[in-house]
Amino acid sequence: MTILNPLKSHTLSAHSHQPLRVTAFGDSLVYGYGDPVNGGWVEQLRRRWMGQDNGHILYNLGVRGDTVAHVNHRLEQEFLLRGEIRNKLPNLIILSVGINDSPRVGKRNMTDFDRFNLEIINLLDKAQSLCPVMFVGMIPIEESGVAQMKDE
Fold it and tell me: Regarding the domain with residue range 18-151, which homologous superfamily does it belong to in the CATH classification?
């Protein structure tokens, strides 16, 4: 797995006159679930870019309930279907996954840590073979209440 800063890549430039074609893959946090007014952070970014001259094109490919394995399974096919400008592929992938793989009180659908590790490495490797990648990490979880609930 390679760590890449896509903003320093020679293929991506903030000073380019061509808009970037960006795909955002992930779960409900990418999709915008829970934000009926603004549509979530990806939608807000898309709206901001739309209002600019030569604004970047952003495809929101967030799916509610998706785990890392789900995104890994659909990544390449959905990536190859995007890119409306003269059949060019997207320039950047934004990934934000993992919340549905995480343990939740009263829920069973937690992905085993070793399986999660393997899936996230495979996902990043696959994504980086397609184009530069930006990974947006998961939100912090307050775990002190979880430990207390287990003890009760």
Answer: SGNH hydrolase (3.40.50.1110)
Mean pLDDT rounded to a whole number for the chain: 82
The angle at the Cα of 149, spanning 144 to 152, to the nearest 5 degrees, equals 130
What is the side-by-side order of every strand in the sheet holding 21-26?
Answer: 57-62, 21-26, 92-96, 133-135
Q: How far is CA 136 from CA 3, 26, 29, 148, in A?
A: 13, 10, 11, 29
Give the tokens for residue 37. Answer: 């007014």
CB atoms within 10 A of CB 13: 13
Quote the pTM value: 0.78
